[in-house]
From TrEMBL:
PANTHER family: PERIPLASMIC SERINE ENDOPROTEASE DEGP-LIKE-RELATED (PTHR22939:SF130), SERINE PROTEASE FAMILY S1C HTRA-RELATED (PTHR22939)
Major subcellular site: periplasm
Species classification: Bacteria, Pseudomonadati, Pseudomonadota, Alphaproteobacteria, Sphingomonadales
Reactions listed under catalytic activity: Acts on substrates that are at least partially unfolded. The cleavage site P1 residue is normally between a pair of hydrophobic residues, such as Val-|-Val
Binding site for substrate: 124, 159, 232-234
Protein name: Probable periplasmic serine endoprotease DegP-like
Compartment annotation: Periplasm
Keyword Transmembrane helix: no
Length: 508
Protein backbone atom coordinates (compact mmCIF):
# COMPACT_ATOMS: atom_id res chain seq x y z
CA UNK A 1 0.00 0.00 0.00
CA UNK A 2 1.16 3.49 -0.77
CA UNK A 3 0.20 6.23 1.65
CA UNK A 4 -0.46 9.83 0.78
CA UNK A 5 -0.90 13.18 2.43
CA UNK A 6 -2.41 16.31 0.95
CA UNK A 7 -4.00 15.82 -2.44
CA UNK A 8 -2.46 12.47 -3.41
CA UNK A 9 -4.56 9.34 -2.99
CA UNK A 10 -3.21 6.06 -1.61
CA UNK A 11 -4.02 2.66 -3.05
CA UNK A 12 -5.42 0.25 -0.50
CA UNK A 13 -3.45 -2.95 -1.15
CA UNK A 14 -2.63 -5.45 2.08
CA UNK A 15 -12.27 4.95 -22.91
CA UNK A 16 -15.16 3.17 -23.29
CA UNK A 17 -18.12 5.56 -23.52
CA UNK A 18 -20.05 5.54 -20.28
CA UNK A 19 -23.34 3.66 -20.24
CA UNK A 20 -24.64 2.15 -17.02
CA UNK A 21 -24.79 -1.63 -16.92
CA UNK A 22 -27.70 -2.70 -14.79
CA UNK A 23 -26.68 -6.29 -14.06
CA UNK A 24 -25.45 -9.60 -15.40
CA UNK A 25 -27.41 -12.61 -16.64
CA UNK A 26 -27.42 -15.48 -14.19
CA UNK A 27 -30.21 -17.78 -15.23
CA UNK A 28 -32.76 -18.29 -12.53
CA UNK A 29 -30.37 -17.23 -9.79
CA UNK A 30 -31.41 -14.10 -7.89
CA UNK A 31 -29.00 -11.33 -6.96
CA UNK A 32 -28.41 -10.80 -3.25
CA UNK A 33 -29.61 -7.23 -3.65
CA UNK A 34 -32.68 -8.14 -5.73
CA UNK A 35 -35.96 -7.39 -3.99
CA UNK A 36 -34.35 -6.26 -0.79
CA UNK A 37 -36.89 -5.94 2.01
CA UNK A 38 -36.50 -2.24 2.62
CA UNK A 39 -38.88 -2.10 5.54
CA UNK A 40 -36.50 -4.39 7.37
CA UNK A 41 -33.25 -2.84 6.15
CA UNK A 42 -33.88 0.86 6.57
CA UNK A 43 -36.83 2.66 8.15
CA UNK A 44 -38.38 5.10 5.72
CA UNK A 45 -37.95 8.05 8.06
CA UNK A 46 -34.63 9.13 9.53
CA UNK A 47 -31.36 7.23 9.87
CA UNK A 48 -31.31 3.43 9.91
CA UNK A 49 -31.73 1.88 13.33
CA UNK A 50 -29.33 -0.89 12.28
CA UNK A 51 -27.38 -2.08 9.24
CA UNK A 52 -27.66 -5.70 10.35
CA UNK A 53 -30.36 -6.88 7.94
CA UNK A 54 -28.74 -5.07 5.01
CA UNK A 55 -25.37 -6.56 5.85
CA UNK A 56 -26.76 -10.05 6.33
CA UNK A 57 -28.15 -10.04 2.81
CA UNK A 58 -25.13 -8.46 1.06
CA UNK A 59 -22.11 -9.88 2.84
CA UNK A 60 -22.23 -13.36 1.25
CA UNK A 61 -21.29 -11.80 -2.12
CA UNK A 62 -18.20 -9.97 -0.81
CA UNK A 63 -14.96 -11.97 -0.93
CA UNK A 64 -11.35 -11.78 0.21
CA UNK A 65 -8.70 -11.96 -2.51
CA UNK A 66 -5.12 -13.05 -1.97
CA UNK A 67 -2.28 -13.57 -4.45
CA UNK A 68 1.07 -15.30 -4.44
CA UNK A 69 3.86 -13.77 -6.46
CA UNK A 70 7.36 -14.70 -7.48
CA UNK A 71 9.63 -11.66 -7.33
CA UNK A 72 13.12 -11.46 -8.81
CA UNK A 73 15.53 -9.71 -6.43
CA UNK A 74 19.21 -8.98 -6.80
CA UNK A 75 21.25 -10.79 -4.15
CA UNK A 76 24.37 -8.90 -3.11
CA UNK A 77 27.53 -10.90 -2.49
CA UNK A 78 29.23 -9.63 0.67
CA UNK A 79 32.50 -11.21 -0.51
CA UNK A 80 32.45 -9.68 -4.01
CA UNK A 81 35.94 -8.66 -5.07
CA UNK A 82 37.63 -11.07 -2.65
CA UNK A 83 39.06 -14.57 -3.20
CA UNK A 84 35.90 -15.95 -1.58
CA UNK A 85 33.44 -14.45 -4.11
CA UNK A 86 33.08 -17.66 -6.15
CA UNK A 87 31.96 -19.59 -3.10
CA UNK A 88 28.62 -17.78 -3.39
CA UNK A 89 27.84 -18.68 -6.99
CA UNK A 90 29.25 -15.60 -8.64
CA UNK A 91 31.54 -17.08 -11.26
CA UNK A 92 32.27 -13.69 -12.73
CA UNK A 93 33.67 -12.58 -9.41
CA UNK A 94 32.57 -8.97 -9.76
CA UNK A 95 29.55 -7.24 -8.24
CA UNK A 96 26.61 -9.40 -7.25
CA UNK A 97 25.15 -12.85 -7.56
CA UNK A 98 22.53 -13.95 -10.04
CA UNK A 99 19.00 -12.67 -9.22
CA UNK A 100 17.10 -14.78 -6.71
CA UNK A 101 13.39 -15.55 -6.56
CA UNK A 102 11.40 -14.67 -3.47
CA UNK A 103 7.72 -15.17 -2.69
CA UNK A 104 5.41 -12.24 -1.98
CA UNK A 105 1.72 -11.92 -1.17
CA UNK A 106 -1.02 -9.34 -1.47
CA UNK A 107 -4.44 -9.08 0.13
CA UNK A 108 -7.55 -7.21 -0.92
CA UNK A 109 -11.29 -7.40 -1.39
CA UNK A 110 -13.74 -8.02 -4.19
CA UNK A 111 -17.35 -8.83 -4.91
CA UNK A 112 -19.14 -11.40 -7.06
CA UNK A 113 -21.28 -10.02 -9.90
CA UNK A 114 -22.77 -13.21 -11.35
CA UNK A 115 -23.92 -16.63 -10.19
CA UNK A 116 -21.20 -18.32 -12.27
CA UNK A 117 -18.44 -16.64 -10.27
CA UNK A 118 -17.19 -13.47 -11.95
CA UNK A 119 -15.50 -11.22 -9.40
CA UNK A 120 -14.66 -7.49 -9.54
CA UNK A 121 -11.69 -6.00 -7.72
CA UNK A 122 -8.98 -3.38 -8.18
CA UNK A 123 -6.19 -3.94 -10.67
CA UNK A 124 -3.54 -3.17 -8.07
CA UNK A 125 -4.86 -5.99 -5.85
CA UNK A 126 -3.98 -8.62 -8.48
CA UNK A 127 -1.15 -6.97 -10.39
CA UNK A 128 2.41 -8.11 -9.66
CA UNK A 129 4.97 -5.78 -8.16
CA UNK A 130 8.11 -4.74 -9.96
CA UNK A 131 9.95 -7.77 -11.38
CA UNK A 132 7.13 -9.98 -10.12
CA UNK A 133 4.83 -12.63 -11.58
CA UNK A 134 1.45 -13.68 -10.19
CA UNK A 135 1.50 -17.44 -9.63
CA UNK A 136 -1.77 -17.92 -7.77
CA UNK A 137 -4.99 -16.04 -7.03
CA UNK A 138 -7.29 -17.27 -4.27
CA UNK A 139 -10.83 -16.14 -3.54
CA UNK A 140 -12.07 -16.77 -0.01
CA UNK A 141 -15.81 -16.75 0.68
CA UNK A 142 -17.31 -15.40 3.91
CA UNK A 143 -18.03 -18.98 5.03
CA UNK A 144 -14.33 -19.82 4.76
CA UNK A 145 -14.40 -21.79 1.50
CA UNK A 146 -11.51 -21.03 -0.85
CA UNK A 147 -11.38 -21.21 -4.63
CA UNK A 148 -8.68 -20.73 -7.22
CA UNK A 149 -9.41 -17.82 -9.56
CA UNK A 150 -8.37 -16.95 -13.08
CA UNK A 151 -7.51 -13.39 -14.10
CA UNK A 152 -9.94 -12.54 -16.91
CA UNK A 153 -8.95 -8.95 -17.64
CA UNK A 154 -7.33 -5.86 -16.15
CA UNK A 155 -7.34 -2.14 -16.86
CA UNK A 156 -4.55 -0.23 -15.17
CA UNK A 157 -5.84 3.24 -15.97
CA UNK A 158 -9.19 2.78 -14.23
CA UNK A 159 -7.61 0.37 -11.70
CA UNK A 160 -10.18 -2.35 -12.34
CA UNK A 161 -9.85 -6.11 -12.78
CA UNK A 162 -12.19 -9.05 -13.33
CA UNK A 163 -11.56 -12.60 -12.03
CA UNK A 164 -13.38 -15.89 -12.63
CA UNK A 165 -13.75 -18.38 -9.79
CA UNK A 166 -12.71 -21.87 -10.85
CA UNK A 167 -15.17 -24.54 -9.77
CA UNK A 168 -18.40 -24.10 -7.85
CA UNK A 169 -21.71 -22.71 -9.00
CA UNK A 170 -24.70 -20.68 -7.89
CA UNK A 171 -22.58 -18.12 -6.10
CA UNK A 172 -24.29 -15.25 -4.25
CA UNK A 173 -23.83 -12.03 -6.21
CA UNK A 174 -24.71 -8.35 -6.24
CA UNK A 175 -25.42 -5.79 -8.96
CA UNK A 176 -24.21 -2.33 -9.82
CA UNK A 177 -26.54 0.54 -8.99
CA UNK A 178 -26.81 4.04 -10.40
CA UNK A 179 -24.07 6.13 -8.81
CA UNK A 180 -25.47 9.21 -10.57
CA UNK A 181 -28.24 9.14 -7.97
CA UNK A 182 -25.82 9.34 -5.03
CA UNK A 183 -26.14 12.56 -3.04
CA UNK A 184 -23.89 14.14 -0.47
CA UNK A 185 -25.17 13.01 2.92
CA UNK A 186 -26.58 9.64 1.77
CA UNK A 187 -25.86 6.69 4.04
CA UNK A 188 -23.46 4.05 2.66
CA UNK A 189 -21.77 0.92 3.95
CA UNK A 190 -18.41 -0.57 2.92
CA UNK A 191 -17.70 -4.29 3.18
CA UNK A 192 -14.19 -5.66 2.77
CA UNK A 193 -11.06 -7.22 4.20
CA UNK A 194 -9.14 -4.49 6.09
CA UNK A 195 -5.73 -5.55 7.40
CA UNK A 196 -6.51 -9.14 6.39
CA UNK A 197 -9.01 -9.54 9.22
CA UNK A 198 -11.76 -10.97 7.03
CA UNK A 199 -15.25 -9.68 6.33
CA UNK A 200 -15.65 -6.29 8.00
CA UNK A 201 -18.48 -3.78 7.67
CA UNK A 202 -18.19 -0.03 8.17
CA UNK A 203 -20.77 2.69 7.67
CA UNK A 204 -20.74 6.37 6.84
CA UNK A 205 -22.13 8.89 4.43
CA UNK A 206 -21.29 10.18 0.97
CA UNK A 207 -18.96 13.11 1.66
CA UNK A 208 -18.67 14.27 -1.96
CA UNK A 209 -19.60 13.09 -5.43
CA UNK A 210 -17.36 13.37 -8.51
CA UNK A 211 -14.41 14.27 -6.28
CA UNK A 212 -11.27 15.29 -8.18
CA UNK A 213 -8.18 14.58 -6.05
CA UNK A 214 -5.73 16.43 -8.28
CA UNK A 215 -3.76 13.30 -9.10
CA UNK A 216 -4.63 13.69 -12.77
CA UNK A 217 -5.70 11.07 -15.28
CA UNK A 218 -8.91 10.25 -17.05
CA UNK A 219 -10.55 8.70 -13.99
CA UNK A 220 -9.65 11.12 -11.23
CA UNK A 221 -13.35 11.22 -10.39
CA UNK A 222 -14.49 9.51 -7.19
CA UNK A 223 -17.22 9.15 -4.63
CA UNK A 224 -15.76 10.35 -1.34
CA UNK A 225 -16.97 8.77 1.89
CA UNK A 226 -16.18 8.87 5.58
CA UNK A 227 -16.98 5.17 6.01
CA UNK A 228 -13.80 3.67 7.48
CA UNK A 229 -11.64 2.27 4.66
CA UNK A 230 -8.20 0.82 5.35
CA UNK A 231 -5.47 -1.33 3.86
CA UNK A 232 -7.10 -4.42 2.37
CA UNK A 233 -10.46 -2.75 1.69
CA UNK A 234 -9.30 -2.08 -1.86
CA UNK A 235 -11.59 -3.62 -4.45
CA UNK A 236 -14.49 -4.03 -2.04
CA UNK A 237 -17.96 -2.61 -2.68
CA UNK A 238 -19.55 0.58 -1.41
CA UNK A 239 -23.30 -0.02 -1.05
CA UNK A 240 -26.21 2.40 -0.91
CA UNK A 241 -29.19 1.78 1.33
CA UNK A 242 -30.97 -0.12 -1.45
CA UNK A 243 -28.11 -2.64 -1.43
CA UNK A 244 -26.72 -1.58 -4.82
CA UNK A 245 -22.99 -1.26 -5.52
CA UNK A 246 -22.48 2.44 -6.22
CA UNK A 247 -18.70 2.39 -5.88
CA UNK A 248 -15.55 0.26 -5.65
CA UNK A 249 -13.33 1.23 -2.72
CA UNK A 250 -9.98 2.28 -4.11
CA UNK A 251 -7.92 4.86 -2.20
CA UNK A 252 -7.56 7.01 0.89
CA UNK A 253 -5.92 10.23 1.93
CA UNK A 254 -4.08 9.70 5.18
CA UNK A 255 -1.06 11.10 7.05
CA UNK A 256 -0.87 7.92 9.14
CA UNK A 257 -1.69 5.07 6.75
CA UNK A 258 -4.99 4.37 8.48
CA UNK A 259 -8.47 5.74 7.92
CA UNK A 260 -8.97 9.39 8.82
CA UNK A 261 -12.40 9.58 7.23
CA UNK A 262 -11.39 10.44 3.66
CA UNK A 263 -11.86 7.43 1.40
CA UNK A 264 -12.52 7.21 -2.33
CA UNK A 265 -14.55 4.79 -4.42
CA UNK A 266 -14.66 4.41 -8.19
CA UNK A 267 -18.25 5.32 -9.19
CA UNK A 268 -20.41 2.59 -10.68
CA UNK A 269 -21.12 4.78 -13.72
CA UNK A 270 -17.40 4.50 -14.59
CA UNK A 271 -16.76 0.96 -13.40
CA UNK A 272 -19.75 -0.93 -14.79
CA UNK A 273 -19.11 -0.52 -18.55
CA UNK A 274 -15.39 -1.17 -18.14
CA UNK A 275 -16.07 -4.30 -16.10
CA UNK A 276 -18.54 -5.48 -18.74
CA UNK A 277 -15.92 -5.09 -21.49
CA UNK A 278 -13.23 -6.82 -19.44
CA UNK A 279 -15.59 -9.70 -18.77
CA UNK A 280 -16.29 -10.08 -22.49
CA UNK A 281 -12.62 -9.78 -23.46
CA UNK A 282 -13.19 -6.50 -25.32
CA UNK A 283 -10.18 -4.16 -25.53
CA UNK A 284 -10.62 -0.93 -23.58
CA UNK A 285 -10.05 1.91 -26.03
CA UNK A 286 -9.92 5.48 -24.84
CA UNK A 287 -9.82 8.78 -26.63
CA UNK A 288 -6.62 10.82 -26.67
CA UNK A 289 -6.04 14.44 -27.65
CA UNK A 290 -2.27 14.65 -27.22
CA UNK A 291 -1.94 17.69 -24.97
CA UNK A 292 -0.35 18.55 -21.65
CA UNK A 293 -2.82 20.47 -19.51
CA UNK A 294 -3.25 22.32 -16.22
CA UNK A 295 -6.38 23.47 -14.48
CA UNK A 296 -7.43 27.10 -14.72
CA UNK A 297 -6.92 28.25 -11.15
CA UNK A 298 -8.00 31.55 -9.66
CA UNK A 299 -4.81 33.37 -10.59
CA UNK A 300 -4.81 32.14 -14.18
CA UNK A 301 -8.47 33.10 -14.59
CA UNK A 302 -7.69 36.54 -13.14
CA UNK A 303 -4.77 37.03 -15.53
CA UNK A 304 -7.05 36.44 -18.53
CA UNK A 305 -10.32 37.81 -17.20
CA UNK A 306 -12.02 34.42 -17.49
CA UNK A 307 -14.72 32.69 -15.46
CA UNK A 308 -13.39 30.73 -12.49
CA UNK A 309 -13.57 26.93 -12.36
CA UNK A 310 -14.06 26.62 -16.10
CA UNK A 311 -11.66 25.16 -18.61
CA UNK A 312 -8.09 23.87 -18.63
CA UNK A 313 -5.03 25.48 -20.18
CA UNK A 314 -3.01 23.67 -22.84
CA UNK A 315 0.64 23.68 -21.76
CA UNK A 316 2.04 21.57 -24.60
CA UNK A 317 0.87 19.89 -27.80
CA UNK A 318 2.15 16.51 -28.96
CA UNK A 319 3.56 16.60 -32.50
CA UNK A 320 1.26 15.02 -35.11
CA UNK A 321 -1.39 14.30 -32.48
CA UNK A 322 -5.13 14.95 -32.63
CA UNK A 323 -4.79 18.38 -31.00
CA UNK A 324 -2.07 19.60 -33.35
CA UNK A 325 -4.03 18.40 -36.39
CA UNK A 326 -7.05 20.32 -35.09
CA UNK A 327 -5.02 23.51 -34.73
CA UNK A 328 -4.92 23.58 -30.92
CA UNK A 329 -1.93 25.54 -29.59
CA UNK A 330 -0.15 25.98 -26.24
CA UNK A 331 -1.90 28.69 -24.25
CA UNK A 332 -5.39 27.82 -25.50
CA UNK A 333 -8.01 27.54 -22.76
CA UNK A 334 -10.29 24.58 -23.58
CA UNK A 335 -13.75 25.16 -22.09
CA UNK A 336 -15.98 22.61 -23.88
CA UNK A 337 -15.54 19.24 -25.54
CA UNK A 338 -18.37 17.85 -27.64
CA UNK A 339 -20.76 20.39 -26.06
CA UNK A 340 -19.82 19.38 -22.49
CA UNK A 341 -18.24 21.95 -20.19
CA UNK A 342 -14.74 21.35 -18.83
CA UNK A 343 -14.91 21.78 -15.04
CA UNK A 344 -13.00 20.46 -12.00
CA UNK A 345 -15.66 17.75 -11.71
CA UNK A 346 -15.67 16.97 -15.44
CA UNK A 347 -12.08 17.31 -16.60
CA UNK A 348 -10.75 17.48 -20.13
CA UNK A 349 -9.01 14.12 -19.61
CA UNK A 350 -12.26 12.48 -18.50
CA UNK A 351 -14.30 13.88 -21.37
CA UNK A 352 -11.77 12.95 -24.06
CA UNK A 353 -11.05 9.48 -22.64
CA UNK A 354 -14.71 8.58 -22.88
CA UNK A 355 -15.02 9.49 -26.56
CA UNK A 356 -14.54 6.62 -29.01
CA UNK A 357 -11.28 7.02 -30.95
CA UNK A 358 -11.91 8.23 -34.49
CA UNK A 359 -14.89 10.38 -33.49
CA UNK A 360 -14.87 13.97 -34.76
CA UNK A 361 -16.02 16.44 -32.11
CA UNK A 362 -16.19 20.23 -31.66
CA UNK A 363 -13.85 21.77 -29.09
CA UNK A 364 -14.54 25.25 -27.71
CA UNK A 365 -11.52 27.25 -26.57
CA UNK A 366 -10.26 30.74 -25.82
CA UNK A 367 -7.23 32.11 -27.69
CA UNK A 368 -6.01 35.69 -27.38
CA UNK A 369 -9.15 36.51 -25.44
CA UNK A 370 -11.49 35.32 -28.21
CA UNK A 371 -13.67 32.26 -28.14
CA UNK A 372 -13.39 29.93 -31.12
CA UNK A 373 -14.34 26.40 -32.18
CA UNK A 374 -12.08 23.77 -33.70
CA UNK A 375 -12.97 20.29 -34.94
CA UNK A 376 -10.82 17.44 -33.65
CA UNK A 377 -10.74 13.78 -34.61
CA UNK A 378 -10.03 12.01 -31.33
CA UNK A 379 -7.05 9.64 -31.36
CA UNK A 380 -6.46 6.41 -29.46
CA UNK A 381 -4.74 6.66 -26.10
CA UNK A 382 -1.31 4.96 -26.05
CA UNK A 383 -0.47 2.34 -23.46
CA UNK A 384 0.88 3.44 -20.08
CA UNK A 385 4.33 2.17 -21.12
CA UNK A 386 4.27 4.25 -24.30
CA UNK A 387 3.17 7.35 -22.39
CA UNK A 388 5.95 6.89 -19.83
CA UNK A 389 8.56 6.66 -22.58
CA UNK A 390 7.40 10.03 -23.97
CA UNK A 391 8.20 11.90 -20.74
CA UNK A 392 11.14 14.30 -20.96
CA UNK A 393 14.04 14.51 -18.53
CA UNK A 394 14.41 17.71 -16.45
CA UNK A 395 18.14 18.53 -16.05
CA UNK A 396 19.59 21.23 -13.81
CA UNK A 397 18.82 24.53 -15.55
CA UNK A 398 21.04 26.80 -13.45
CA UNK A 399 23.51 28.92 -15.47
CA UNK A 400 26.07 31.59 -14.75
CA UNK A 401 24.45 34.94 -15.53
CA UNK A 402 25.15 38.52 -14.53
CA UNK A 403 22.76 40.03 -11.98
CA UNK A 404 20.62 43.00 -13.01
CA UNK A 405 20.84 45.83 -10.50
CA UNK A 406 17.41 47.31 -11.02
CA UNK A 407 14.37 45.66 -12.60
CA UNK A 408 11.95 48.35 -11.46
CA UNK A 409 8.32 47.28 -11.79
CA UNK A 410 9.21 43.72 -12.69
CA UNK A 411 10.98 43.09 -9.40
CA UNK A 412 8.43 45.07 -7.41
CA UNK A 413 5.32 43.49 -8.94
CA UNK A 414 6.46 39.96 -9.86
CA UNK A 415 9.33 39.40 -7.43
CA UNK A 416 11.65 38.58 -10.34
CA UNK A 417 15.01 39.85 -11.51
CA UNK A 418 15.30 39.26 -15.25
CA UNK A 419 17.83 39.96 -18.00
CA UNK A 420 17.53 39.88 -21.80
CA UNK A 421 18.23 36.51 -23.41
CA UNK A 422 21.47 36.58 -25.39
CA UNK A 423 22.76 33.93 -27.77
CA UNK A 424 25.42 32.89 -25.26
CA UNK A 425 22.92 32.50 -22.42
CA UNK A 426 20.46 30.67 -24.69
CA UNK A 427 23.19 28.19 -25.58
CA UNK A 428 24.07 27.62 -21.91
CA UNK A 429 20.40 26.94 -21.13
CA UNK A 430 19.90 24.56 -24.05
CA UNK A 431 17.57 26.93 -25.93
CA UNK A 432 17.64 27.43 -29.69
CA UNK A 433 19.53 30.42 -31.05
CA UNK A 434 16.33 32.05 -32.35
CA UNK A 435 14.59 31.99 -28.93
CA UNK A 436 13.62 35.45 -27.66
CA UNK A 437 12.60 36.46 -24.18
CA UNK A 438 13.87 37.28 -20.71
CA UNK A 439 15.90 35.06 -18.39
CA UNK A 440 15.11 34.81 -14.69
CA UNK A 441 18.26 35.76 -12.78
CA UNK A 442 16.73 35.66 -9.28
CA UNK A 443 13.40 34.98 -7.58
CA UNK A 444 12.19 36.58 -4.36
CA UNK A 445 11.45 33.84 -1.83
CA UNK A 446 8.33 35.67 -0.66
CA UNK A 447 6.86 36.11 -4.14
CA UNK A 448 4.03 34.21 -5.81
CA UNK A 449 6.51 33.40 -8.57
CA UNK A 450 8.55 31.40 -6.05
CA UNK A 451 5.43 29.63 -4.82
CA UNK A 452 4.60 28.73 -8.43
CA UNK A 453 8.03 27.15 -8.90
CA UNK A 454 9.82 29.73 -11.05
CA UNK A 455 13.59 29.61 -10.62
CA UNK A 456 16.88 31.03 -11.86
CA UNK A 457 17.50 30.02 -15.49
CA UNK A 458 13.85 29.94 -16.57
CA UNK A 459 13.17 31.80 -19.82
CA UNK A 460 10.06 34.01 -19.99
CA UNK A 461 8.84 33.85 -23.58
CA UNK A 462 5.57 35.79 -23.36
CA UNK A 463 3.42 37.66 -20.85
CA UNK A 464 -0.34 37.66 -21.39
CA UNK A 465 0.46 36.20 -24.85
CA UNK A 466 2.67 39.18 -25.78
CA UNK A 467 6.32 38.61 -26.74
CA UNK A 468 8.70 40.11 -24.15
CA UNK A 469 12.20 40.39 -25.68
CA UNK A 470 13.01 43.40 -23.46
CA UNK A 471 12.44 44.51 -19.88
CA UNK A 472 10.32 47.42 -21.08
CA UNK A 473 8.01 45.02 -22.96
CA UNK A 474 7.34 43.06 -19.76
CA UNK A 475 6.87 46.27 -17.77
CA UNK A 476 4.30 47.41 -20.32
CA UNK A 477 2.30 44.16 -19.92
CA UNK A 478 2.36 44.57 -16.13
CA UNK A 479 1.15 48.17 -16.44
CA UNK A 480 -1.73 47.15 -18.75
CA UNK A 481 -2.74 44.32 -16.40
CA UNK A 482 -2.96 46.76 -13.50
CA UNK A 483 -4.97 49.21 -15.64
CA UNK A 484 -7.44 46.39 -16.39
CA UNK A 485 -7.69 45.59 -12.64
CA UNK A 486 -6.23 42.12 -13.12
CA UNK A 487 -4.52 40.49 -10.18
CA UNK A 488 -2.09 38.29 -12.10
CA UNK A 489 -0.03 38.05 -15.27
CA UNK A 490 0.16 34.90 -17.40
CA UNK A 491 3.76 34.02 -18.22
CA UNK A 492 4.88 31.41 -20.73
CA UNK A 493 8.03 29.88 -19.28
CA UNK A 494 10.63 27.64 -20.92
CA UNK A 495 12.81 25.41 -18.74
CA UNK A 496 15.66 23.32 -20.06
CA UNK A 497 14.55 19.83 -21.08
CA UNK A 498 10.83 20.58 -20.66
CA UNK A 499 8.08 21.89 -22.93
CA UNK A 500 7.21 25.56 -22.46
CA UNK A 501 4.33 26.00 -20.00
CA UNK A 502 2.03 28.76 -18.82
CA UNK A 503 2.19 30.01 -15.24
CA UNK A 504 -0.10 32.68 -13.78
CA UNK A 505 1.88 34.84 -11.34
CA UNK A 506 -0.01 37.09 -8.93
CA UNK A 507 1.01 40.74 -8.84
CA UNK A 508 2.30 42.11 -5.54
Amino acid sequence: MRYAYGLTSALLVGGAAISLIGGYPAGAQTAQNEGLQMERAVPRAGAPESFANLTEQLQPAVVNISTRQEVQVQANNPFAGTPFADMFGNRRGRGSQQPQTQEAQSLGSGFIISADGYVVTNNHVVSPGRNGTITEITVKMPDGKEYDAELVGTDAQSDLAVLKIQGGENFPFVKFGDSDQARVGDWVIAIGNPFGLGGTVTSGIVSAVLRNTGSGGAYDRYIQTDASINRGNSGGPLFDMQGNVIGINNAIISPTGGSVGIGFAIPAEIAAPIVDNLRKGIEIERGFLGVGIDRVDEDLAASLGLEKNLGEIVQSVQPDGAAEKAGIKPGDIVVEVNNKRVTPQQTLSFLVANITPGTRVPIELYRDGKRRTVQATIGKRPSEEELASQQMFDPDADAEMPQEDDNGAIEEKLGLQVIPLTGQIANSLGASSDTTGLVVAAVSRTSDAARKGLRRGDIILTANYVDVPTLSALEQVISEAESDNRDAVLLRVQRRGLPARYVAVRLR
